[in-house]
Design a protein that fits this description.
The chain contains five helices and no strands. Helix 1 packs antiparallel against helix 2. It is mostly helical. It has two domains: 42 residues; 58 residues. Helix content is 84%, strand content 0%.
């Protein structure tokens, strides 16, 4: 690296550090994109999306992306299954309670003998 590149890189890192410490992350990313010669969006969602697309284009990251995708899908399936089970159990419990109340109304003597 030549001297000018080293100085530019050091200045960029120092500016990023200062802006990061002062909670000016969007400004730091904007300045970094200007220095790099690219116009990046300042929305965090758009930045993450752009980063994911750039990583997906790199063949070294393809296995990691597939692994993460599989893990996320499995976690989603597990969460969906758990939610469905809880809701179905709640419906079953409600039906059981209604059945017991209906049986108690239809046969009041049967319930009083059991107590």
């Amino acid at each position: 690296m030549d001297h000018f590149t080293k100085v530019s890189l050091t200045a960029a890192v120092a500016a990023g550090y200062v802006l990061g410490r002062t909670k000016k992350g969007k400004l730091a990313i904007g300045l970094a994109s200007l220095v790099a010669g690219q116009q990046l969006p300042l929305s965090p969602r758009e930045i993450v999306s752009l980063g994911i697309h750039k990583l997906a284009q790199n063949p070294q990251f393809a296995p990691l992306i597939e692994q993460a995708r599989g893990e996320v899908l499995e976690a989603g399936r597990t969460a969906l299954s758990a939610t469905a089970n809880r809701r179905l159990e709640a419906v079953a419990d409600a039906l059981e309670q209604r059945t017991k109340k209906a049986a108690a109304k239809n046969h009041p003597h049967r319930n009083s003998r059991r107590r």
